[in-house]
Amino acid sequence: MQPWQAFILGVIEGITEYLPVSSTGHLLVAQHFMGIGTASATEKAAADIFAICIQGGAILAVLGIYMKRVMQMLRGVLGQDPDGLRLAIMLIAGFLPAAVIGVLFNDKIEEKLFGTTPVVIAWIVGGVLILATAWWRKRNPLVGSGKDLVSMTLKMALIIGLLQCVAMWPGTSRSLMTIVGGLLVGLSIQAAVEYSFLLGVLTLTAATAKKAVWKVDAAGVSAKYDVWFGGMKLLTDTYSPVALIVGIVAAAVFAAIAVKWLVSYLQSHGLSIFGWYRIALGAGVGALVLANVVPS
């Protein structure tokens, strides 16, 4: 992988990670067009790990933007801020469903669903879901002006966490499910977006750590990677450290831009634009699959 390719993937990761459009789906398609991960099973596994690890840049972006919230939660854990402790508990509650289901079914999901056709289906279905949510909000104008983060309950957090699990299907979008989930359980649009971003820090950190530390047990990959830190060893054996650094830095910069833009945009606009984008993208890539330009 050349540094310019790592940069493009980092830009794509940064822009799409927190927008409700699916970073995984965009990265899978981008990797295909750049010929990354196509040479062998080993390179394919390394490309998948690279796509996960550059999420570290997106994590850093949100930590920087929401540092006050993070510090509030830290004070809460230390017994100095009741609201901070409550928010920390709500985040852990929202994270637990994905942690359990991810451990039990992640390998099967990757085996069955990491392909272009499942991504296209998820893009279109997710787009329809966004448009349906936008329609519902118009008919229910009080939705989106609901509770703030400190008013969340464990039930609300668990519902959002269960919806986040749907995003394990590549192309669905973690932020889509958590933002829509937040609105459905009664959060304000600002609270739903902020909770989605903060929950993403936990979820993405866990996913990145798992890929780096866990064993690599993919079919056709050498047994030497079926050891602890096998993911990181495979990554460094396949790609240069420069590529990883470039990808992480690009993801951090563009994630910060995307997060700030989304928060500002949603102040006066709805989610509909993302629904139409997903449907158009799904239709376009789906046409390429039918024309055998892109593998299914």
Structure description:
Helix 6 packs across helix 10 and helix 9 runs antiparallel to helix 10 (189-213). This protein has 296 residues and is an all-alpha fold. It contains 13 helices and no strands. 74% of the residues lie in helices and 0% in strands. It has helices at residues 3-16, 23-33, 41-53, 55-65, 67-77, 82-113, 116-139, 154-166, 174-184, 189-213, 230-238, 241-265, 272-290. The protein has one domain. The protein starts with a helix and ends in a 6-residue tail after the last helix.
* Cα Rg: 19 Å
- Range of strand content: under 5%
Count up the domains.
1
The helix content is over 70%
Low-confidence stretches: none
Q: In total, how many beta strands?
A: 0
Biggest beta sheet summary: none
Q: How would you sum up the global shape?
A: globular
In DSSP terms (H or I, runs of 4 or more residues), the helix count works out at: 13
Order of helices and strands: HHHHHHHHHHHHH
Distance between the termini: 23 Å
Descriptive terms for the model:
single chain, 296 residues, mainly alpha, globular, EC 3.6.1.27, transmembrane, antibiotic resistance
Summarize this structure briefly.
By secondary structure, the chain is mostly helical.
Blueprint of the fold:
Layout: H1 3-16, H2 23-33, H3 41-53, H4 55-65, H5 67-77, H6 82-113, H7 116-139, H8 154-166, H9 174-184, H10 189-213, H11 230-238, H12 241-265, H13 272-290
